[in-house]
Amino acid sequence: ILEPGDALAYAGEHGFVADADPEGLAVRHGAAALLQGIPVGGGVGVGRAAFNRPDADDMLRNGDPVVFIGVETSPELLPVMQKAAALVTMRGGASSHAAVVARQLGTPCVVGVGKPIVDNTLRAGEDVRSGDMLTVDGDSGRLYPGDASERVDILTDHERRLRQWAAEADR
Q1: Cβ–Cβ under 8 Å, residues 96 and 114
Q2: CA-to-CA distance for 114 and 138, rounded, in angstroms?
Q3: What is residue 19's DSSP assignment?
Q4: CA of 27: how far to CAs of 13, 33, 110, 138, in Å?
Q5: What are φ and ψ of residue 7, in 5° steps?
Q6: For 127-147, how does the pLDDT look when each residue is reduced to its tens digit (9 = 90+)?
Q7: I need a surface site. Which of 18, 94, 104, 144 has the fewest CB within 10 A?
Q8: If you average pLDDT over residues 76-87, what whole number do you get?
Q9: DSSP secondary-structure letter at 154?
């Protein structure tokens, strides 16, 4: 059994940050999904829909979070992908460009949605237009209209205990 000081030293060597944000995003219970695709992971991201790089760049310059939506992604889109709150593609699977890059970046991503994009509008039961707010759940593969997120505690019991020990050690 480790003593608190030894546990903190070990955890620090393995990437534990005692003052990291203990909260993350989750989809609000009861939110109605707009679309379903293939989940790639990365949690939940919320932002304004952008269907091309110029629109995404403008939104990002204005300080708006962006959900980048495309038929597919390619290496030229990497600057936008690096800043996006989430990624959505109409085609692709778990090994597609968007999926691989999103996993590396830790960005929420849903691929293979399979709906058409016409005139910067994602045609679904409820159309999604450029600038519309969206919530992307990369763990379930679902897209939600608007901001369907809520802040939740993401710490494990072990992380809570380490934080408590770190606070006591600082006294």
Answers
A1: no
A2: 16
A3: T
A4: 32, 10, 15, 11
A5: -65, -40
A6: 889 999 999 999 999 999 888
A7: 104
A8: 96
A9: -
Domain borders along the chain are: 1-22+155-171, 23-153
* Class for the domain spanning 23-153: alpha beta
- Give the per-residue pLDDT at 138: 93
* Nearest alpha carbon to residue 132 among 50, 52, 55, 71: 50
The span from the CA of 80 to the CA of 145, in Å, is: 21
Residue 62 has pLDDT above 90, yes or no: yes
Q: Answer for the pair 63, 46: CB distance below 8 angstroms, yes or no.
A: no
35 and 113 Cβ atoms separated by less than 8 Å: yes
Q: Rounded to the nearest 5°, which phi and psi values hold at 36? A: -130, 135
| Under 8 Å between Cβ of 40 and 104 | no
- Scan for tokens 């809520």, then name that residue: 150
**Is 143 within 8 Å of 125 (Cβ atoms)?**
no
Indicate the burial class of 90 (C-beta count within 10 angstroms; 0-12, 13-18, 19 or more).
Answer: middle
What is the residue-wise DSSP string for 41-110? Answer: ES-EEEEEEE-SHHHHHHHHHTT--EEEEES---GGGHHHHHH-SEEEESS--TTSHHHHHHHHHT--EE
Whether pTM exceeds 0.90: no
